[in-house]
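User: Sequence recovery, please. Input:
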């Protein structure tokens, strides 16, 4: 998989919905993109946290937050109202949605904190409906 990803000459977004996935934001594989610009990594939680599943929706809370931003939450996620979501708007939307999802599952709203590498990614469109 690594060799296949490295051969693709484009910007890469990596989504990790797994416990302790924030570790990848501290030591990312920088050679996945030619020219020394590494991938943008969206991780479900910090490196010392668990990534929780929704008990009835059968998905991780992180995945649900991503799907929300790309679906019914699009108008809220598109903060600059340009008809698309950029890389920063996406992580900001995920982070805003997570406390609601945690409360919905009966957990404290600070148990899972999505991470991004780089912390302030370069702005470029990642989704347009």
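Assistant: Recovered sequence (129 residues):
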């Amino acid at each position: 998989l690594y060799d296949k990803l490295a051969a693709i000459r484009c910007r890469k977004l990596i989504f990790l919905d797994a416990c302790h996935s924030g570790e990848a934001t501290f030591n990312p594989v920088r050679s996945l993109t030619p020219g020394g610009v590494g991938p943008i990594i969206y991780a479900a939680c910090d490196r010392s946290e668990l990534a929780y599943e929704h008990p009835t929706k059968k998905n991780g809370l992180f995945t649900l937050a991503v799907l929300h931003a790309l679906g019914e939450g699009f108008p809220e996620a598109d903060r600059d109202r340009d008809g698309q979501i950029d890389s920063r708007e996406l992580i900001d939307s995920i982070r805003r949605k997570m406390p609601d999802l945690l409360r919905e599952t009966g957990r404290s709203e600070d148990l899972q904190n999505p991470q991004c590498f780089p912390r302030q990614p370069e702005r470029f469109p990642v989704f347009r409906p």
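The radius of gyration is 15 Å.
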